[in-house]
Automatic annotation (TrEMBL):
Signal peptide as annotated in the record: none
Positions of region (Disordered): 1-24
Keyword Transit peptide: no
Lineage: Bacteria, Bacillati, Actinomycetota, Actinomycetes, Kitasatosporales
Protein name: TadE-like domain-containing protein
InterPro entries associated with the record: Rv3655c/TadE, TadE-like_dom
Keywords, alphabetical: Membrane, Transmembrane, Transmembrane helix
Domain of life: Bacteria
Low complexity: bias regions: 10-21
Listed transmembrane segments: 40-61
NCBIfam families: TadE_Rv3655c
Length: 142
Protein backbone atom coordinates (compact mmCIF):
# COMPACT_ATOMS: atom_id res chain seq x y z
CA UNK A 1 0.00 0.00 0.00
CA UNK A 2 1.46 3.42 -0.96
CA UNK A 3 2.37 5.67 1.94
CA UNK A 4 -0.18 8.33 0.98
CA UNK A 5 -3.08 5.88 1.38
CA UNK A 6 -1.79 4.58 4.72
CA UNK A 7 -1.65 7.99 6.26
CA UNK A 8 -5.21 8.88 5.16
CA UNK A 9 -4.15 11.42 2.54
CA UNK A 10 -6.18 11.71 -0.63
CA UNK A 11 -5.08 12.41 -4.16
CA UNK A 12 -6.27 16.03 -3.80
CA UNK A 13 -3.60 18.64 -3.94
CA UNK A 14 -3.16 21.61 -1.63
CA UNK A 15 -5.91 23.65 -3.37
CA UNK A 16 -8.49 20.88 -2.91
CA UNK A 17 -8.50 19.90 -6.58
CA UNK A 18 -8.37 16.23 -7.29
CA UNK A 19 -5.92 14.62 -9.66
CA UNK A 20 -8.79 14.12 -12.16
CA UNK A 21 -9.63 17.81 -12.62
CA UNK A 22 -10.26 20.99 -10.71
CA UNK A 23 -12.99 21.54 -8.22
CA UNK A 24 -15.91 19.36 -7.45
CA UNK A 25 -15.21 16.14 -9.28
CA UNK A 26 -15.33 17.45 -12.85
CA UNK A 27 -13.22 15.62 -15.33
CA UNK A 28 -10.42 17.55 -17.01
CA UNK A 29 -12.28 17.46 -20.37
CA UNK A 30 -15.29 19.37 -18.98
CA UNK A 31 -13.39 22.59 -18.44
CA UNK A 32 -14.59 25.43 -20.66
CA UNK A 33 -18.10 24.15 -21.29
CA UNK A 34 -19.69 27.01 -19.36
CA UNK A 35 -17.85 29.50 -21.53
CA UNK A 36 -18.91 27.70 -24.71
CA UNK A 37 -22.53 27.50 -23.58
CA UNK A 38 -22.55 31.21 -22.66
CA UNK A 39 -21.07 32.06 -26.05
CA UNK A 40 -24.02 30.33 -27.70
CA UNK A 41 -26.81 31.36 -25.32
CA UNK A 42 -26.02 35.07 -24.94
CA UNK A 43 -26.39 35.96 -28.65
CA UNK A 44 -29.59 33.91 -28.84
CA UNK A 45 -31.01 35.75 -25.83
CA UNK A 46 -29.99 39.11 -27.31
CA UNK A 47 -31.73 38.22 -30.59
CA UNK A 48 -34.84 37.09 -28.72
CA UNK A 49 -34.89 40.35 -26.75
CA UNK A 50 -34.57 42.41 -29.93
CA UNK A 51 -37.42 40.45 -31.54
CA UNK A 52 -39.57 41.01 -28.47
CA UNK A 53 -38.90 44.76 -28.50
CA UNK A 54 -39.68 44.92 -32.25
CA UNK A 55 -42.93 43.03 -31.71
CA UNK A 56 -44.01 45.39 -28.94
CA UNK A 57 -43.23 48.41 -31.12
CA UNK A 58 -45.22 46.90 -34.01
CA UNK A 59 -48.20 46.24 -31.73
CA UNK A 60 -48.07 49.83 -30.47
CA UNK A 61 -48.00 51.11 -34.08
CA UNK A 62 -50.97 48.87 -34.95
CA UNK A 63 -52.93 50.37 -32.06
CA UNK A 64 -52.06 53.84 -33.36
CA UNK A 65 -53.38 52.85 -36.80
CA UNK A 66 -56.66 51.69 -35.25
CA UNK A 67 -57.00 54.91 -33.25
CA UNK A 68 -56.23 57.01 -36.33
CA UNK A 69 -58.82 55.22 -38.46
CA UNK A 70 -61.45 55.67 -35.76
CA UNK A 71 -60.65 59.36 -35.32
CA UNK A 72 -60.91 59.91 -39.06
CA UNK A 73 -64.20 58.02 -39.31
CA UNK A 74 -65.70 60.05 -36.45
CA UNK A 75 -64.63 63.29 -38.12
CA UNK A 76 -66.06 62.16 -41.46
CA UNK A 77 -69.35 61.14 -39.84
CA UNK A 78 -69.66 64.68 -38.41
CA UNK A 79 -69.54 65.99 -42.01
CA UNK A 80 -66.19 67.69 -41.60
CA UNK A 81 -64.22 68.59 -44.71
CA UNK A 82 -62.06 65.88 -46.29
CA UNK A 83 -58.92 67.83 -45.34
CA UNK A 84 -60.06 67.96 -41.69
CA UNK A 85 -60.86 64.24 -41.74
CA UNK A 86 -57.42 63.41 -43.09
CA UNK A 87 -55.78 65.76 -40.59
CA UNK A 88 -57.65 64.09 -37.71
CA UNK A 89 -56.51 60.68 -38.87
CA UNK A 90 -52.91 61.78 -39.46
CA UNK A 91 -52.66 63.36 -36.02
CA UNK A 92 -53.23 59.97 -34.38
CA UNK A 93 -51.39 57.86 -36.97
CA UNK A 94 -47.78 56.68 -36.72
CA UNK A 95 -45.09 58.36 -38.81
CA UNK A 96 -45.09 57.75 -42.58
CA UNK A 97 -48.72 56.59 -42.51
CA UNK A 98 -51.00 56.76 -45.53
CA UNK A 99 -54.66 57.69 -45.04
CA UNK A 100 -57.56 57.18 -47.44
CA UNK A 101 -61.09 58.49 -46.94
CA UNK A 102 -64.03 57.42 -49.07
CA UNK A 103 -67.78 57.34 -48.84
CA UNK A 104 -69.76 54.27 -49.82
CA UNK A 105 -73.52 54.87 -49.68
CA UNK A 106 -74.19 56.00 -46.10
CA UNK A 107 -70.83 54.96 -44.66
CA UNK A 108 -67.57 56.86 -44.42
CA UNK A 109 -64.60 54.53 -44.55
CA UNK A 110 -61.16 55.56 -43.35
CA UNK A 111 -58.17 53.32 -43.87
CA UNK A 112 -54.68 53.86 -42.43
CA UNK A 113 -51.49 52.06 -43.55
CA UNK A 114 -48.13 52.43 -41.89
CA UNK A 115 -44.82 50.58 -42.09
CA UNK A 116 -43.84 48.71 -38.95
CA UNK A 117 -41.23 50.57 -36.93
CA UNK A 118 -37.67 49.32 -36.85
CA UNK A 119 -35.62 47.62 -39.54
CA UNK A 120 -36.96 47.12 -43.05
CA UNK A 121 -36.64 43.38 -42.64
CA UNK A 122 -39.18 41.91 -42.35
CA UNK A 123 -41.14 44.41 -44.44
CA UNK A 124 -44.41 44.52 -42.54
CA UNK A 125 -47.21 46.98 -43.31
CA UNK A 126 -49.73 47.62 -40.58
CA UNK A 127 -53.24 48.71 -41.46
CA UNK A 128 -56.58 49.49 -39.87
CA UNK A 129 -59.96 50.48 -41.19
CA UNK A 130 -62.94 52.13 -39.53
CA UNK A 131 -66.38 53.01 -40.80
CA UNK A 132 -68.98 55.42 -39.49
CA UNK A 133 -72.51 56.25 -40.54
CA UNK A 134 -72.74 59.68 -42.13
CA UNK A 135 -74.85 62.11 -40.11
CA UNK A 136 -76.51 63.55 -43.22
CA UNK A 137 -77.98 60.12 -43.97
CA UNK A 138 -79.78 59.89 -40.63
CA UNK A 139 -83.50 60.51 -40.72
CA UNK A 140 -83.77 60.12 -44.48
CA UNK A 141 -86.50 57.64 -45.40
CA UNK A 142 -85.35 54.66 -47.48
Amino acid sequence: MPPSERSGESRAGPSGASAYGRGRGRAAGDRGFVTAEAAVVLPVMALFTMALVWTLAAVAAKIQCVDAARAGARAAARSESPAAVEAAARSAAPRNARVTVRRTDDLWRVRVWAPAPGPDFPAVTLSAQAAALAEDSMGVPP
